[in-house]
């Protein structure tokens, strides 16, 4: 069949996203509205509201795709062979040396071009 049936019988994804955004915006508004309350309680409340909004958003198709992407990314990061401290220091030193060499070459070129222009325009007497 060519049609895609949603596995959950709940609200459509657009409504879920709207609900998550409204809930998150309401949490932020409440955080500032209750400024006279303890900051600890406001932060805990904001984290709870953000968690609920995240749970609602993750129940959508795009949310599930994002969660799958994050899991795959974590697996790929685990496969990376990280350089040793020695390799990192050597690479950093080489980059520094090359930057200094290029800076000196550009300074020399700038000086040469400046001298040439001053001679052509007669500024250098």
Q: What's the number of extended β-strand segments? A: 0
Instruction: Look at the helices and sheets and give the structural class.
Output: mainly alpha
Beta-strand residue fraction: under 5%
pLDDT average, as an integer?
90
Strand count, sense and barrel status of the largest sheet are: none
SSE string, helices as H and strands as E: HHHH
List keywords for this structure.
single chain, 125 residues, 4 helices, 0% strand
Describe this structure in words.
With 125 residues, this protein is an all-alpha fold. The protein has 2 domains: 8-80; 84-125. The chain contains 4 helices and no strands. Helix 1 packs antiparallel against helix 2 (39-58). The longest helix has 37 residues, at 85-121. It is elongated. The chain starts with 12 loop residues before the first helix and ends with a helix. The mean pLDDT is 90.
